[in-house]
Amino acid sequence: MEMMPLMFTVMVVLLLLGFPMKIPLLVGSMVGFFLMFDSFEHAQFMIQQMIAGVKPASLIAVPMFILAADIMTRGQSANRLIDMVMAYIGHHKGGLAVTTATACTLFGAVSGSTQATVVAIGSPLRPKLLENGYNDSFVLSLIVNSSGIALLIPPSIGMIIYGGISHTSISDLFIAGIVPGLLLLLLFSMYSIYYAKKHNIPTIDRASRQRKWAMTKQAVWPLGFPLIIIIGIYGGIFSPTEAASTCVLYALIIEVWVFKSLSMKDIFETAKSSGLITAVVFILVAAGAAFSWIISYAQIPQAVMSGLGLADASKVELLMVISIAFFVGCMFVDSIVVILILVPIFLPEIDRLELDKVLVGILITLQVAIGAVTPPFGCNIFTAVAVFRRPYMDVVKGLFPFILLMLLVVFLVITFPQMVLFPLDLLAK
């Protein structure tokens, strides 16, 4: 326990000095190892833990989903989904804003990446929203928050990382995330309609039946992605890892040969970009595995739980503490890092209380989604600043109502856990 303050002090100092998070994690783990064993003579134990951290076959899904998302972002899938949704609901009051939220959800179900969704959906729709009279702060907040739904709708990279650490079924996590994801979409849509009525935003022209049919036909291919993931996994055709690989193949087929939007040279560049992102993610996972082993060996989780007075906590109390911890953590640090650091701390207590790990995973994913858009350091905020070249304050100005709606969903999940678990019960019958 004595080593914990020094470990975390070193990590915070390195983080404040501007080092990427993998460095504080690795250095913090090395400091902890040295304090426990008084030397690096047996450092191979820590190396073994790092290798074990990236060994699970389920993690193969991460680079596959990243690559599939990258291919679709550079291709036509996003625009075809936007055009289809716009044709059906664009003419209603607030329809353009609802289209944006829906398109973000659909593309999230295709890509599993919040940043990819901000770029792919936000870039073409933001000008249209501004032309129709929406305030830019509302537009930016809508795009940033709706993209966070991608963390809940399968595939979700956050869920894959959590499932690997906690040994929870990734398939179950994928299915359990659908209801809260759709609930968020409903709440964002209702708020968008309220905003449009309050500010008297004009509607766009109603699409003809012919146009609706034409846009639907165009979007048939991209809509195949959620079918591959949901039906493939729960029809017993694919494992989550196989589904991810199939998504890459499917993305290649539709973007290169069907839409002819990408050349093989583009695919090579896309693969290089995805490889770099994957390398960063896997270094983080390996560093997180070492850190998790160190703190577990030193019994830091038990000490933290005891220090917080949670040794006798009820299930609801623990869920609330987990929610607060992840909410605060994700305000400052990337979500994957927070999952890697905090899940091992809470895991012994989750096991002691026999909490459903799927429920905990969905709650954590929700908090990660909130953290990604919460000032000061939510990663989606900075993605929006970079992509749309708008000042930081313009992006964060309209976030508060959306954050409140997401916190409402957190409250509902804690209060009514069956809203998350009932799809699994249905599938089990």
Key features of this structure:
429 residues, mainly alpha, 23 helices, 76% helix, globular
Assembly state: single chain
Stretches where pLDDT falls below 50 for ≥5 residues?
A: none
Q: What number of structural domains do the residues give?
A: 1
| Structure classification | mainly alpha
Residue share in helix: over 70%
- End-to-end distance: 46 Å
Describe the structure.
There is one protein chain. With 429 residues, the protein is an all-alpha fold. The protein has one domain. It contains 23 helices and no strands. The protein has helices spanning 3-16, 22-37, 44-53, 61-74, 77-89, 95-111, 114-131, 136-147, 157-166, 170-176, 178-198, 209-219, 224-234, 240-258, 264-297, 300-307, 315-332, 335-352, 357-371, 379-388, 392-396, 400-415, 418-428. α3 (44-53) crosses α15 (264-297), α4 (61-74) packs parallel to α14 and α5 packs antiparallel against α6. The model has no long low-confidence stretch (mean pLDDT 83).
